[in-house]
Amino acid sequence: MEQKQYTSKELLKRFVPYFKKYKGTLCMDLFCAALTTVCELVLPLIMRYITNEGMRDLAALSMQTVGRLGLLYLVLRIMDGIASYYMADMGHVMGAKIETDMRRDAYRHLQQLSNTYYNNTKVGQIMGRVTNDLFDVTEFAHHCPEEFFIAAIKTVISFFILAGIHLWLTVLVFLCVPLMAGVCMTLNFRVKGAFRKQRHQIGELNARIEDSLLGHKVVKAFTNEGIEKEKFEKDNQKFLDIKKESYKYMAMFQTTVKMFDGLMYLMVVVAGGIFMVKGLILPGDLVAYMLYVTTLIATIRRIIEFAEQFQRGMTGIERFLQIVDADIEIFDEPDAVDLYDPKGDIVFENVSFEYPDDHNRVFKRLNLHIKAGEKVAIVGPSGGGKTTLCNLIPRFYDVTCGRVTLDGEDIKHFTLKSLRGSIGIVQQDVYLFSGTIYENITYGRPGASREEVVEAAKRAGAHEFITELKEGYDTYVGERGVKLSGGQKQRLSIARVFLKNPPIIILDEATSALDNESEFEVAKSLARLSEGRTTLTIAHRLSSIRNSDRILVLTEDGIVEEGTHEQLLEQKGMYFHFYNMANQLK
Ligand code: ADP
Ligand code: MG
Question: What highest taxon heads this organism's lineage (predicted)?
Answer without folding.
Answer: Bacteria
